[in-house]
Amino acid sequence: MSKTRPHVPRRTSHREHVLHQITNRIRQSLELPEILSTAAREIRRFLGVDRVKIYRFAPDGSGEVIAEAIHNNQLPSLLHLHFPASDIPQSSRDLFVRARQRVITDVSAQHQMAHRLDHPDTGESLINHDIRHTPADPCHVQYLNTMGVQASLVVPVLHQRQLWGLLVAHHSKPRHFSERELQVVQLSVDQLSIAIAQANLLAQTRAQVLYEATLNQVSQLLHSPLSQPEIRQQVLEAMVAALKAVGGRLYIAAEPSGEVAQLYVTGEQPNSPNLEQDPVWQELLGRRTDGLSALTSTHTPSPEAIAQFASSLDTSLESEKSETLRFHTFDSLQADPRWQPIVALLEPTSIRAIALIPLQFQHQFVGYLGIFRSGYDQEILWAGQHQEDARNIMPRASFAAWREIKLNQAPEWTPQDIRLANSVAIHLYLAVTQRRVEAMMRYQASHDALTSLPNRLLFNDQLSLALASAQQDDEMLGVAFLDLDRFKLINDSLGHAVGDELLQEVARRLRACLRPCDAIARWGGDEFTLVLPHLHSAEDISHIAQRILDRLTSSFYLGEQEIYITASLGIALFPYDGADVETLLKNADLAMYQAKQQGKNNYQIYHEGMAVQTLNHLALESDLRKALSRKELLVHYQPQIDLMTGAIVGVEALLRWQHPLLGFVSPAQFIPLAEESGIICTIGEWVLRTACQQQRDWQAAGLPPMRMAVNLSAQQFQQSSLATSILQTLEETGIEPQYLELEITESAAMRDVQFTTSTLSRLVDLGVQIAMDDFGTGYSSLSVIKHFPLHTLKIDQSFVRDAPHNSSDVAIANTVVALGRGLGLKVLAEGVETAEQVEFLRSIQCDFAQGYYFSRPLPPEAIAPLLISKQVTG
Question: What positions does the domain GGDEF occupy (predicted)?
Fold first, then answer.
């Protein structure tokens, strides 16, 4: 007997029609509300019930009917009604998720059936599983009765394994739901889950499109040829529009180079004219310091750091959310007592949400972006009278809509809002910082790092412009070279840190005493150049020059140290002394050297004779370089006398230059020249070797050995090979170390105390004597001097010359002798020229002396008779 195919009921075509309509709607439309409305309508028509509604849960557990289909007004509409979270307990929601539970309720029989179907994705057919019949909850039955419902079907709608909402079918009469109907409804709900996923994906895509479009717009603006104010204003307006805000604020902090802070605003603002200066606003922003200085930048990252940050930009945007972002609502601010001043600023405005995004990377703050959103009014239709009844114990008496109106609600900041704001802030930070780095590089290329004055490159440009203006207006213009006197002594004795501080203070004083039209630059070292335009006569330049010199002669207080300096100033005038930059600078430099030669602390205006003097100076330097090989350098010796006995106790070796044309050249003229030209070390080594050989020759001639004092220049003393060189000289000449006394100046000793102590200790270990020359003219600390391994202190002749008539010199000489005695050192006075000075030195118990009173420096053959007698007549 053959089997016959069973008759396919009409309901099957209805099922196919329902699924076809829902699937087509999903394909034809990407809008979820339209798909849900179609699904509710088709399922109601398929089931033939009075009402089908789709109910969506909110994050707080409440829900809203968002789609509905009703047949002939058999039941009242519930569309857009909200139901409190207590209407569907959490336990019921969990049950829907775990078991994909459907609940069918027969109100008239007060009977409830829980029914589960497996999902077709599992590969199993749709067959009945876990069907449980239980009495319906009386509260729920009464709940449905109040709604006019006699039969209901509840099907959970899931999205990503979470309960998204419910599809509910209501009928005003008792009704049975067949197996086939349940299958069609479940398949339809599964299609809705697909539509929900599709809608979420669409929302994400739209958000991404907005995100990328806004970033592209910002990037194009930041790289546009518009001015910086125009760019920043338009970027701010674009952000306000993208985030649907009512106002915005972009603050760019002051730059280290001196550019002032800048503020850009659009739309509605907090009610404060000086918001950035408000300490509470700064704290809200995360800048926990006082005053506008809190919102300034003191350091700019290196170009390498910015490039590294920019290269990781994509990764940082996707994976990192800056902890510095500040997103607030009016309610959250109002709940914190700290922010009440900010609440007071917002209350008169419509602003009810603010975003504060610092433009910051690695604690480098360059400003912030502020976005302000207005509040909105919200109307919620609640199902039934709004009251706190014990839900699921006492049902609602009525489902008439109760209207709740919430005014001026604060909009929340979504993750998409935060991502967009953070990304734009990073682009702004990069743009601002890149511009600052470029500006700083330009600034550093044209300015001196120590004094912040223009350097020679910028000065040349400034001078060129000033010259062009002077030529056009037929005016006189001055160019000046200024050099500090004795600056090397200060640098050597007090250290480079003090020297740098002094240069900074000199730069400040020079700025203060110049006219607004004048320009100043640091040329290098302790040299400064000036442009002095709009001069009417030579008297104008004289007044300016004298004002500069007077201003610099006032004492400088660097820490606890009081320092006095002077300066030498050389001036060249346009159009008399040159018509171009190079000539004017050269002639001003010549005039400055002339001021040095005239005794320093004065100014000289260039004249043609200075060029001749400079040529002579260069020729003298050239001759000095050849003097050693031509045997023009000589060593003379001046005896050192014991003041108590009058006996010669030693001699000092002193360098002399016998020039073939000029005769004897003064040491005061050629020693500084040797130091400037760098040949002083070579000459110093020759003097040391010559003096030791002379000591050996005198001993060979039968003279008794005596102390030979030899000066070490500052450059010679700084040589690391000094001790080795001296030991080699002693060994070659056969002189015993105790008869060699090395003299170093106080300023050379104080250049590097640690190095000096170490070097002197090595020399003392060799057995030589150490004397500190020119004592009292430097800036040494007594706490340092006591640690130097010395044998003799030499009082500088400047303190001997006016003694005993000058009370200050008397006091200094007394102090040095007392200090030497206290430290166990011998004291020798230099430059003794009168019997009165000798008596004074004896009265204060000075040990030794030397000077013209006893003998001028003599060549070896002339001093030999004195050494034989070991006595001089004074």
Answer: 475-608
